[in-house]
Amino acid sequence: METIQAWVTLVKDIVTILATSIAAGVAVMGLQAWKKQLKGKTEYELAERVLRAAYQFREALAWVRNPLIYEGEQVQAMKDANIEGNPGDPPTRQRRLKAVYEKRW
User: Fold this and answer.
1) Which residue ranges in the chain fall short of pLDDT 70?
2) Of 8, 31, 48, 67, which shows the fewest CB atoms inside 10 Å?
3) How far apart are CA 22 and CA 79, in angstroms?
4) Could you give the number of structural domains in the chain?
């Protein structure tokens, strides 16, 4: 009878050790998966922010380089840069365009 109890105790201890080892292994694998997921999510969010910033920069640069210049924008740029003269005069036109693009930038 004592031998049976000893065997039952031994089997119970082995099963407990195996169950604990398996649980620890699953926990380690779960933590590694979580770590990979967290790293991937962080890299994805960073890439998304960089891409959005690149798109915003592209749009801003396209606006600065836009050849369409409104009259009010020209007048305001000329006032800010203290440019006077005939708007049809080529040197005045160059200074006016330079003032507009500098103000946009």
Assistant:
1) 86-88
2) 67
3) 78
4) 2
